[in-house]
């Protein structure tokens, strides 16, 4: 299989790039080769959002009903600093430079930019292009649907963008103001035509002296490549791998990209099981889970920022094996299993049995996670709680996925899973044992809280001390009890220190802290 240049749509034309390393980031290419310096480098790890750009793709069958569709094109924000350039092959790239030009109303500024000016939404200006691109994507999505976001929805859309001097109030004002200005819908036809012309079912291979990236388009081709290249590093959204390159300069000679396999992006509920393809984005996977368990909304909206949720995958978050990954505790509480594939062989492993040690799993050479399966027939109460220093776009100190089933007042089923408490995400076996078959009373709760000290011996690090983590985990069990006790259970708005807000998805009514 021969290598060919990277081809993508940018600034109104198809661009071909060759000779750069497979790990060359979109940000570095924009600033150093394309001379599009409006996109800024901030943290260089996908955290601050200064480098936010918008990627346009033709939706596959798995994304035919995506809420990010605009004029037949799927538009998603992403962080250019950790996106590898070859992953743009066959896609469209939109940056802040694309907003420049005389609009139909005679203004040289796009309504997003005009609103930022009128509302004083920029001070030092360094982060402004990233905010503008996130708002531009929101503007296009809502414009295509004929809707208008609430102020809280705007805040959720901007959760991946950080500002240290302007303050968020005027930026949110601009987000509201942009819909009052004369409309400037995106003409997607040039990009769609270009992407249709580039579309191919053939595996894309890009190779230089610095390494190679292989991007199959079908599930069969991907499985064959994985079996033939067991040492290749699997790449999805590079939300973790991108930091290996930017921060520790780790060489990655062989990358196998999962992001172009449409079959791995499918999410479907069938025969009592919700199946989430390993290539489905975090945003789409969490949206599907929340569609069945609305109590997971808070963790969905607080799982990183929107650009990271667009790029990363739930399959990657689980396969990565990080002890602070927020997906695994929730999925364990839901009794999820993983579909593992090695060539043509398929096997299933309970997620609770998947991890064998720190960043280690039961994956065999040449094997990969094909899907996550979650049973839908559970009548259990399910809760997920995330504790971090910053409310939005932060890594958890502790994340809990908790499920409990009651037969009258007696606990008939229980699953307590925690992240941030051990070398792996794992279930609290002792705490579960003291609860199962017992009345769900305050005394049983206290026994479970004490048992957590047997289940876990957490470490102290920059995010939290061991004592704090244990106390928080115990307190989260108390919160679960308050919300699920047989007599006078409280709503989540009454048990959280955070005020319940009008997010895009429904939340429990607001109430006083208990």
Number of domains: 3
CATH architecture of the largest domain: Roll
Q: So, the CATH homologous superfamily of the largest domain?
A: Beta-grasp domain
Largest pleated sheet:
6 strands, mixed
Q: Strand tally, please?
A: 21
- Rg, Cα atoms, Å: 23 Å
Structural class: alpha+beta
* CATH topology tier name of the largest domain: Ubiquitin-like (UB roll)
Task: Give the helix proportion (percent range).
Answer: 25-40%
The proportion of residues in beta strands is 15-25%
Mean pLDDT: 93
Give the CA-based shape.
Answer: globular
Major sheet: order of its strands?
A: 2-1-6-3-5-4
Separate helix tally:
17
Low-confidence stretches: 500-514
Separation, N- and C-terminal Cα atoms: 63 Å
Structural commentary:
It is built from 17 helices and 21 strands. α2 (111-118) packs across α5 (168-177), α14 (429-435) packs antiparallel against α15 and α15 runs antiparallel to α16 (466-484). A hairpin with a 2-residue loop joins β1 and β2 (13-17). It starts with 5 loop residues before the first strand and ends in a 19-residue tail after the last helix. It has a six-stranded mixed beta sheet with strand order 2-1-6-3-5-4. It has a five-stranded antiparallel beta sheet with strand order 11-12-17-13-14. It has helices at residues 26-33, 111-118, 128-145, 151-157, 168-177, 189-198, 219-228, 241-248, 282-292, 297-302, 306-311, 314-320, 327-333, 429-435, 442-455, 466-484, 492-495; strands at 6-10, 13-17, 52-57, 69-70, 73-79, 92-94, 204-208, 211-215, 233-235, 254-257, 267-270, 273-277, 337-342, 345-350, 355-357, 360-361, 367-375, 381-387, 398-407, 410-419, 426-427. With 514 residues, it is an alpha+beta fold. The chain folds into three domains: 1-195, Ubiquitin-like (UB roll); 267-375, 2-Layer Sandwich (Uridine Diphospho-n-acetylenolpyruvylglucosamine Reductase, domain 3); 391-495, Enolase-like, domain 1 (2-Layer Sandwich), CATH 3.30.390. Residues 500-514 have low confidence and may be disordered.
